[in-house]
Amino acid sequence: GTPGDLTGKRIVISAGGTREPLDPVRFLGNRSSGKQGVALAEAAAARGADVVLVAANLEVPAPANVDVRLVSSAADLERAMTEAAAEADVIIMAAAVADYRPSEVRAEKIKKEDTGDTLVLTLVRNPDILAGLAAARKPGQIVIGFAAETEADPGLLLELGREKAARKGCDYLVLNRVGWTEGFASERNEVRVLNRHGDIVIEVSGSKMSVAERILDLLS
Ligand code: PMT
């Protein structure tokens, strides 16, 4: 990217994976390391943007020159994003957010002596943070979401991305295939960026930093 081309822009980025508590010592989580969101934050700051990074359980260090807001659960992330969104020109949701959380958080550690050989957890839906931010966006504010799908067939993968783009109502949706070794926690990423009509506007495969730079090119 061109140095300074995002000067004066306030960009709010979520990164990492949420943790939904079960009891004081356990959670339901996912394998997001935060690398893709952190690369976006680092690249945006290097290009002059004023960056807020809403960081959920990162496995990599946050960049030094950004305003970091630490969160853990989807509910925390929603509060932090909603607060930061009020001042944002651009919102990017790179975090992997739990779709469900345990219906109750136990005050004491769940004990196998009490539960026996099988333990059934009841989960309830979390709000869709991205869809909420997109629906509430101010005039001129740009909202970018991600779509993480395990579908192996490239055509079907694109279909899922298009459906998600329509459902979420964001300006751009970054579609990446994820799996045991791809997307989550990897060094590289392979993405297609869709606009709100589902047209492919960018196709890039490379380091998470190079993917970040191409996404930010949409803003300059
Ligand atoms: O962190 P890394 O290890 O570098 O991995 C990067 C990544 C694969 C996690 C990242 O590139 C990515 O795809 N992030 C989005 C993961 C995700 O939650 O995808 P999804 O298809 O389940 O959700 C779609 C979009 O809705 C995402 O922007 C997500 O942030 C958002 N969402 C999802 C559920 C929910 N309850 N609220 C949301 O806002």
TrEMBL record:
<keyword id="KW-0460">Magnesium</keyword>
<keyword id="KW-0288">FMN</keyword>
<dbReference type="GO" id="GO:0015941">
    <property type="term" value="P:pantothenate catabolic process"/>
</dbReference>
<feature type="region of interest" description="Phosphopantothenate--cysteine ligase">
    <location>
        <begin position="11"/>
        <end position="220"/>
    </location>
</feature>
<keyword id="KW-0285">Flavoprotein</keyword>
<dbReference type="GO" id="GO:0010181">
    <property type="term" value="F:FMN binding"/>
</dbReference>
<comment type="function">
    <text>Catalyzes two sequential steps in the biosynthesis of coenzyme A. In the first step cysteine is conjugated to 4'-phosphopantothenate to form 4-phosphopantothenoylcysteine. In the second step the latter compound is decarboxylated to form 4'-phosphopantotheine.</text>
</comment>
<feature type="domain" description="DNA/pantothenate metabolism flavoprotein C-terminal">
    <location>
        <begin position="6"/>
        <end position="219"/>
    </location>
</feature>
<dbReference type="GO" id="GO:0046872">
    <property type="term" value="F:metal ion binding"/>
</dbReference>
<feature type="binding site">
    <location>
        <begin position="127"/>
        <end position="130"/>
    </location>
    <ligand>
        <name>CTP</name>
    </ligand>
</feature>
<comment type="function">
    <text>Catalyzes two steps in the biosynthesis of coenzyme A. In the first step cysteine is conjugated to 4'-phosphopantothenate to form 4-phosphopantothenoylcysteine, in the latter compound is decarboxylated to form 4'-phosphopantotheine.</text>
</comment>
<keyword id="KW-0511">Multifunctional enzyme</keyword>
<dbReference type="GO" id="GO:0015937">
    <property type="term" value="P:coenzyme A biosynthetic process"/>
</dbReference>
<comment type="similarity">
    <text>In the N-terminal section; belongs to the HFCD (homo-oligomeric flavin containing Cys decarboxylase) superfamily.</text>
</comment>
<feature type="binding site">
    <location>
        <position position="109"/>
    </location>
    <ligand>
        <name>CTP</name>
    </ligand>
</feature>
<dbReference type="GO" id="GO:0071513">
    <property type="term" value="C:phosphopantothenoylcysteine decarboxylase complex"/>
</dbReference>
<feature type="binding site">
    <location>
        <position position="164"/>
    </location>
    <ligand>
        <name>CTP</name>
    </ligand>
</feature>
<keyword id="KW-0436">Ligase</keyword>
<protein>
    <recommendedName>
        <fullName>Coenzyme A biosynthesis bifunctional protein CoaBC</fullName>
        <ecNumber>4.1.1.36</ecNumber>
        <ecNumber>6.3.2.5</ecNumber>
    </recommendedName>
</protein>
<keyword id="KW-0210">Decarboxylase</keyword>
<dbReference type="GO" id="GO:0004632">
    <property type="term" value="F:phosphopantothenate--cysteine ligase activity"/>
</dbReference>
<feature type="binding site">
    <location>
        <position position="168"/>
    </location>
    <ligand>
        <name>CTP</name>
    </ligand>
</feature>
<feature type="binding site">
    <location>
        <position position="99"/>
    </location>
    <ligand>
        <name>CTP</name>
    </ligand>
</feature>
<keyword id="KW-0479">Metal-binding</keyword>
<keyword id="KW-0456">Lyase</keyword>
<comment type="pathway">
    <text>Cofactor biosynthesis; coenzyme A biosynthesis; CoA from (R)-pantothenate: step 2/5.</text>
</comment>
<dbReference type="GO" id="GO:0004633">
    <property type="term" value="F:phosphopantothenoylcysteine decarboxylase activity"/>
</dbReference>
<comment type="pathway">
    <text>Cofactor biosynthesis; coenzyme A biosynthesis; CoA from (R)-pantothenate: step 3/5.</text>
</comment>
<feature type="binding site">
    <location>
        <position position="146"/>
    </location>
    <ligand>
        <name>CTP</name>
    </ligand>
</feature>
<comment type="similarity">
    <text>In the C-terminal section; belongs to the PPC synthetase family.</text>
</comment>
